[in-house]
Amino acid sequence: AKCVDIALSSCTDVAYTQMVYPNFLDQKSREVIEYSSEYLLISVLHNLLQGECNPDLRLLGCSVLAPQCEKDKVIKPCRRVCENLKKNCLPAFDAIDMAWPYFLDCDRFFAGEEEGCFDPLAKLRGEVDVEEDLPSNLPATFIRFKHHSYSQMVSTLKKIASKCSHIATTYSIGRSFEGKDLFVIEFSTKPGHHELLKPEFKYIGNMHGNEVVGKELLIYLAQYLCSEYLLGNPRIQTLINNTRIHLLPSLNPDGYELAAEEGAGYNGWVIGRQTAQNLDLNRNFPDLTSEAYRRAGIRGARLDHIPIPQSYWWGK
Question: Which residues fall in a coiled-coil region (predicted)?
């Protein structure tokens, strides 16, 4: 095998940079791959499945069509990743009466951990671009002020939750359009559990993907809350002991990545502002204020739970 740079347009965002010919389907050149039915399928799966299981399926397909290569050695994708994705995505295939693609055969083209494999979906979970280890002589409460990429943000939040596991946990409220988890870190005396009558509070940052100060401030706030709680800061301990706090540093990681690729000072104020669906999240909320005033004039109408008006969805 001889490693070459990936030149397939549908696979340029995989977590590695080099592949090998022939691939697992014995396709011997870029041209053969790009004209194949398998490559066409991974290009249109998003539309066929109406956005379900993507970009996961595309990245999984790329791991077969453009196998990872390091030092002229091929590395197979992990079988467990294929099996988990197949289990989760089969209902979407069944809904359109389509069989699971043969070239994503989990037994044939994938390997077990004991054989040495890689996770083709790791980039979606922020597990590729991790922070370098800090010197061992730093205090446990040290806060490093640096800019965080998406994957570094996820890694940092997980490390904070691990260091303060008795008062912190991480979870995802869902995926962005391009498949990135929307990670939240929660601080509470019972992390992960709703407590009746205990006030809950949330901060959300990076709604506009190219506005990153809020994202960084929430990462630093998470570090601060953990460190100060461990140090015995009475104000922070009172806050966490009596409030359930949720911090979502990046609501628009897709827009952030687009802006980050251009670089600060080069992208203007438009690039990355919106989501990958061209939605401005800051201007995409239902106008429930007007709906509340309208319902207030109706005898017996409830104001404690207002459904989103049907008119909000018109044209969307």
Answer: none
Name the CATH topology of 3-115: Frizzled cysteine-rich domain (1.10.2000)
- With a threshold of 0.85, does the pTM exceed it? no
Q: What residues contact residue 315 under an 8 Å CB cut-off, 6+ apart?
A: none
Residue whose pair of structure tokens reads 């809950």 in the numeric block: 200
For 150-262, CATH number out of 3.40.630.10, 3.40.190.10, 3.30.390.80, 3.40.50.720 equals: 3.40.630.10
197 beta partners:
none
Categorize the per-residue pLDDT at 179 as very low, low, confident or very high, splitting at 50, 70 and 90: confident
Measured over the CA atoms of residue 166, residue 187, residue 275 and residue 85, the dihedral's sign is positive
- Cross-strand pairs, 3: 20
pLDDT of 279 reads 87
Q: How confident is the model at residue 3 (pLDDT cuts 50, 70, 90)?
A: very high
312 Ramachandran zone, left/alpha/beta (phi>0; psi -120 to 50):
alpha
- Cα–Cα distance between 218 and 185 in angstroms, integer? 10
Span 278-287, average pLDDT: 83
What is the rounded CA–CA span in Å between residue 301 and residue 306? 10
What confidence score (pLDDT) does residue 267 get? Answer: 58
